[in-house]
Automatic annotation (TrEMBL):
Domain of life: Bacteria
Taxonomic lineage of the native organism: Bacteria, Bacillati, Bacillota, Bacilli, Bacillales
Protein name per UniProt: Uncharacterized protein
Amino acid sequence: MKIIITQEEAVQKGVWNDVMNMFGVQNEDETYPQEQFILTEEQAKQLKLIS
């Protein structure tokens, strides 16, 4: 299973810093609120987005 989360959703859920680390995004990188990141089921569980 794949889970899609946008940058905006990640910020709202308080997991944006973790998503940044998972995908190698740096603070100085330009990102957009609707930019999508595809998480594996295991990654989503690590972030407590699913159980």
